[in-house]
Amino acid sequence: MNPAIQSLLLIQGVLVGLLTLAGLLVWIERRLLALWQDRLGPNRCGPFGILIFVADGIKMITKEDWIPPGADKPVFILAPAIIVITALLSFTIIPLAPGIAILDLNIGILFFLALSSMGIYSTVLGGWASNNKYSLLGGLRMSAQMFSYEVFMGLSLMGVVILSGSLNLREIVEAQSGMWFVLPQFAGFLIFMVAGLAETHRLPFDMPEAESELIAGFHTEYSSMKFGMFFVGEYVGLTVISAIIVTLFFGGWQGPFLPPFVWFALKTLFFILFFILLRAALPRPRFDQLLAWGWKFILPLALLNLVVTGAIVLARAG
Amino acid sequence: MISNIRTLWLVFKHAFRKRVTIQYPEEKAYLAPRYRGRIVLTRDPDGGERCVACYLCAVACPVDCIALDSAEDETGRRYPGMFRINFSRCIYCGFCEEACPTYAIQLVPDVEMAEYNRQNMVYEKEHLLIDGEGKYHGYNYYKVAGLAIGGKGKGEAENEDPPIDPRGLT
């Protein structure tokens, strides 16, 4: 087949798959949260309530799309698009199976880090453009959270880069054929997971939304599908973080017996479910605690991890 | 950190607990016999209306949702000619039941009264009156009241002695 058509088909498949998954995650999350709270969750619409996301989608689209007076209109409209675009774009570099990736980029990790930082603009701009003090506070919190957690998000990945000697995600997966990087890089894995949570502003790090403090934070003023876009972006972001963790620390598509893509999907799903469990179990920390913890504890830990990893690799090479 | 991991494990274990959800239209929550729900007017064991139209329920009602007027049949027995409860006002406090001297008005464990049209929440006597005795069995006001009424003379009620002429005692 023509490689151009092939890659177009792949892009189409990934796009449809990701957006469907984002929709399904609404249902999965609600059912799982209910499961862990001794409830049943949505179980009426379709088998096991799975069609709830279709109903939700129809509801979202048919709601009034309201822009508050005094809002910065172009920015207000642009903000929800940014998070979806960056989240979808950062999925392009993830190798789904041997030889199957939309982009085989030799600076894959940098590309991912750059896009995840770009995604923050969505919440910051959304909070700014809403002309609402709660939204602004949410946006401010997001930017502060980004500054503190972005730093060691990159640093935590450098251990993997040192071990594999590459920024290319495909080569990193191939370097894990002997041993998953989660073993030598356990600290890096934990740090990246925390940073990833903070980056996707999922609970327990949902300070920018914080219903009990800021109404709904940066998306207080959003309605209709713009609100829906923030959620699509959040769920795609969750999938991306899970996929990146699997790719960098858990051997990506590698695994016995089952086809590579099935392994990749299973591992990714496991982390998505784990993030939902985190949301069900952990309370939201206070904002200053979050920042203090980031700067005073995790950042030194990430640096230490980097130094030790580098020293060991150097000692072995020398 | 340890406590966070313990929390995760404890929450995860909840997946295997019994569900607390009651799937409403199919399953129903248990309502105690004395639950304060829909208001009914009951009858005595002989099938006569218990209500004597004394207006005490209407007086006791804090939201004034009860309206009635009294009537009297040829034997002198009082009964409500009209009895109307506006359930869109009713707060199900049960004061009417407490005020009722004849056990006529009672709150029963039924809560499924939703209507699309507010006017349908106004219940007339024919909707309120039930055929049974409700929560209090075997009570018949006119059988124990010392009132002479059609077919029952003075002193013929249950637990009542015939009238005495006090002057005959001397």
CATH fold node name of the domain at 30-145 in chain B: Alpha-Beta Plaits
The radius of gyration computed from the alpha-carbon positions of chain A, rounded to a whole number of angstroms, is 20 Å
Main interface: chain pair and counts: A-B, 11 and 14 residues
Based on CA atoms alone, the radius of gyration of chain B comes out at 25 Å
Instruction: Report low-confidence residues of chain B grouped into runs of 5 or more.
Output: none
Number of helices of chain B: 5
CATH class of the domain at 30-145 in chain B: Alpha Beta
Enumerate the spans of chain A where pLDDT stays under 50 for 5 or more consecutive residues. Answer: none
Span of the ends, CA to CA of chain B: 96 Å
Concise structural overview:
The complex is a heterodimer of chains A (318) and B (170). With 318 residues, chain A is an all-alpha fold.
Keywords:
heterodimer; A: 318 residues; mainly alpha; 11 helices; 0% strand; B: 170 residues; alpha+beta; Alpha-Beta Plaits; two-stranded antiparallel sheet; 14% strand
Structure description:
The complex is a heterodimer of chains A (318) and B (170). Chain A is mostly helical and 318 residues long. Chain A has one domain. Chain A is 69% helix and 0% strand. The mean pLDDT of chain A is 85. Chain B is an alpha+beta fold. Chain B has a domain of 116 residues: Alpha-Beta Plaits. Helix content of chain B is 18%, strand content 14%. Chain B contains five helices and five strands. A three-stranded antiparallel sheet of chain B has the order 2-3-5. In chain B, strand 2 and strand 3 form a beta hairpin. The longest helix of chain B has 12 residues.
SSE blueprint:
The complex is a heterodimer of chains A (318) and B (170).
Chain A: H1 3-36, H2 52-62, H3 73-90, H4 108-129, H5 133-164, H6 169-175, H7 186-199, H8 211-214, H9 224-249, H10 260-281, H11 287-317
Helix pairs in contact in A: 1-2, 1-9, 1-10, 2-9, 3-4, 3-9, 4-5, 5-7, 5-11, 7-9, 9-10
Chain B: H1 2-13, E1 39-41, H2 56-60, E2 66-72, E3 78-86, H3 95-99, E4 105-107, E5 122-123, H4 125-128, H5 141-144
Antiparallel strand pairs in B: 1-4, 2-3, 3-5
